Amino acid sequence: MPIRILPPEVAVKIAAGEVIERPASVAKELIENAIDAGAQEIHVEIAQGGRRLVKVSDDGCGIPADEVELAFARHATSKLQSVEDLYRVRTLGFRGEALASIAAVSRLTLTTRAADEKVGTLIRLEGGEIIHREPLGRPPGTMVLVENLFFNTPVRLKFLRSDTTEAGHVARLLSSYALAFPEKRFTLQNGSRLVLRTTGTGALYDAIVAIYGVDVAEQMFPIPRPEEDQPVKVWGYIGAPSLHRSNRLEIIFFVNRRWVQDNALSYAITEAYRTLIPQGRYPVAILNIELPPEQVDVNIHPTKREVRFRQKNLVFVSVQKAVRSTLMAKHSVPAVQVPRSPLAGWRPPARSTPSQAHMALELYRPGELPRLGDSQERLSTPPQTERLPMLRVLGQLAQTYIIAEGPGGMYLIDQHAAHERIRYEELKAQRERAEVASQELLEPLPIELSPRQATLLEAHLEDLALYGFEIIPFGGSTFLVKRVPAQLVGQAIAAAIMELLDAAIDGGKDFSWEEQTLITLACHTAIRAGQTLSLEEMRTLIQQLEKTSLPHTCPHGRPTMIHLSQAQLEKEFGRR
Ligand code: ADP
Ligand code: MG
User: Fold this and answer.
1) Residue 336 CB: number of other CB atoms within 10 A?
2) Which atom of ligand 1 lies at the shortest distance from residue 142's CA?
3) 79 lines ligand 1 (CB under 6 A)
4) In degrees to the nearest 10, what's the CA dihedral of 49, 55, 61, 66?
5) ∠366-237-45 over CA atoms, to 5°?
6) DSSP string covering 98-165
7) What tens digit of pLDDT does each residue of 266-318 get?
8) What are the CA-CA distances from residue 5 to residues 20, 35, 88, 305 (Å)?
C-alpha cells in the first residue's frame, strides 16, 4: 500500500503519545518497520549506548522515491486506511508516527530503494526539518541512521542512564525480536563488538541457542504449535524448573508475534510453576500466543507493548494449560551429578536426560488435565493417578535422608521435604472440602505479639479459622490460642503463627496468603531433619509420597529426592 496521511477520524482513534524515550525505543520502531517491510536481514548498530548513534539496515521492500518525505509526516502510514483496519492490525506498526517522532529529536539520515525502482533516495533531517535530499544508488532496502538522539531536548537526554544500561535495553529488545522472528537474521553490533547474531533458520530453538547459549537451550522444554484449529494457540519453549531466575525478565510473550508485556500472563506462568521452583524465583519461558487479530486490541498503549484480549480468560487458561501439561509430562527426579573423582581417565557422566532419570511416579495423563475455572484459575482438581512400583526402603542416612532402591537405581529422599509435600497436599485437600482437622488444646496458649502483628492477626482471625485455628483476643496485643490444626499439636505453635503473620505482611508477592498458609503449616507439621524414623515410618512416608500429585518437589520448590541410576553406578565403579 502507498503511504498516506491517516484521515482525521482514524488519527484521533489512535492511542498516540510520545513513544521515544530512550535509544531502545528508536531501535524498536526501526526494527518493527524493517519487519513490516518484509526484511530477511536486519542489522542494528549502536554507539555509546545508542545516544551517539542507532543504525538499522534492512533488505525489505524499501520506500518509493515519491513517498520518502511523506513517511516523515505525522500519521503517515502505508499500513492502515480506515477505522475498521484498526481492529484487525496485522503489522507491527500502524500509527504512522514513529519516523516523525524520531526525526523530531535527532539528526536522521535515511537511505532507501524500493525493489522495483532503479534509483534510491537519501534524505537527511535535523530536529524534524528536511535539510537535504538526493538520489542515491543502493541495493533494495532501507537504512536509518539516528545520530545525537535528544540533541535538542536536553531534559530527555538527562533521563538517559549509563551507556551500558541503555545498550542493555537495546540488546534485550533485539533478543526478543530475534525470538519472535526466528526466520530472520538479526545482528547487533555495539561499537566494535558483535553482541548478537542469529542464524535465521526459522527454528525457535536455534534462536534460543544464539541468545541464551546451548546450556540454557538444553534445559528448555518445547511446547509444539498445535496442529488443529484452536481459538488460541500457545507454543514455544519453557524452562525446566531447575532453570529459575531472580526476576520475570525471562518470561517473554509474543502475541501474534508482537512482543508484549502482560502481568496477568506472567502470573499465569509463575502460577503454573508454583511449588516447582523456589519461592521468590521465576521461570524462563518464551511463548507465542496466536489468535485471530480481531481478538486482540493492540491500540491501547503508545508503545504498543500492552494489548487487550477480547477473551482474556480463554487466553489465560490456554497459556496455563500448555505450560502445566508440558511441565507435568517432562518433570522428573533430578539426577545426582557425581563429583569429579580422582580416578585417572574418569569423565563426568553426561547430564541425564529426563527419560534416563525418570521415575514416573504420578503424572497427568494426556487428556486428563484438571479443568481450569475462570479468572482465579487454580489447578486444584486431583489428577488421575497411576500406581507405581514401590520403592524398597533400605535405611536412613544422617537421620535426614531415606535411602531406597527402585527399578531405576538408588533414590535418596529428603524426609522433611517429602513429608512437607505430603502434608501440603493433605491440608490443601482438607481446606478445599472445608474440613481441616482441628484439635482443641488442653490448655489455651497465650501469645504475645507486636502491635503490628496483633493488627494483622485481628484481621486474619476468620481466615485462620478455616485452617483449624481458634484464636481469641485477650486484651492488648495478647491472644489466646484455643484450637489448632490437628497436626500442629505438640509442635511450635507460636512460631508457626508468627510465620503465618509474616506471610501476611509480605502477602501476595509470589504466593497468595492462602497458599503461603498451606506451605507454612505443611512445613511446621512435617517430620524434621534429624528425626530418627523406623523402617515402618519410612515405608509409610514413601507410600504417601507416591500418592501426591507432585512428588518430586516440596511446596517451596526444592527437590524431595535425588536419583543415582544403575547405569551411573556401573560407570562410577568402572563396570562399563
Ligand atoms: P508506521 O510503521 O506506523 O506505519 P512509521 O512512521 O514507522 O509508521 O513509518 C511510516 C511509513 O514509512 C510506514 O508505513 C512505511 O510505509 C514506511 N517505512 C518506514 N520504515 C520502512 C522500512 N524500513 N522499509 C520500508 N518502508 C518503511
Ligand atoms: Mg513504524
Assistant:
1) 20
2) 23
3) yes
4) 120
5) 165
6) HHHHHHHTSEEEEEEE-TT-SSEEEEEEETTEEEEEEEE---SEEEEEEESTTTT-HHHHHT---HHH
7) 988 998 888 888 888 889 999 999 999 889 988 777 777 888 899 988 999 89
8) 21, 21, 19, 24
- Cα–Cα dist 331/553, whole Å: 10
Q: How many domains does the chain have?
A: 3
Tell me how far apart the alpha carbons of residues 90 and 292 are, in angstroms, rounded to a whole number.
Answer: 10
Same domain membership, residue 173 and residue 69: yes
Whether residue 566 is contained in a domain is answered as yes
Contact 49, 160 (CB under 8 A): yes
Q: Which residue lies with its CA nearest to atom 20 of ligand 1?
A: 33
- DSSP tag of 351: P
Residue ranges of the chain with pLDDT lower than 50? Answer: 338-389, 508
Indicate if 141 and 281 belong to the same structural domain. no
Atom of ligand 1 nearest to the CA of 29: 7
37 lines ligand 1 (CB under 6 A): yes
Which ligand has the shortest distance to the CA of 70?
A: 1
Residues in the chain: 576
Between the CA of residue 318 and those of 230, 234, 531, what are the distances in Å? 10, 7, 44
- Separation of alpha carbons 343 and 434, rounded Å: 58
- Evaluate: CB of 78 within 6 angstroms of ligand 1: yes
State the distance from the centre of ligand 1 to the C-alpha of 33, rounded, in angstroms.
5
Assess whether 408 and 503 both reside in one domain: yes
pTM of the model: 0.62
Do 179 and 223 belong together in one domain?
Answer: no
Residue 326 shares a structural domain with residue 434: no
CA of 77 to the centre of ligand 2 (A): 8
Query: How do residues 96-143 score in pLDDT, each as one tens digit?
Result: 889 999 999 999 999 999 999 999 999 999 999 999 999 999 999 999
Judge contact between 113 and 140, C-beta under 8 A. yes
Does residue 367 lie within any of the structural domains?
no
Domain around 461: 383-576
SS3 299: coil
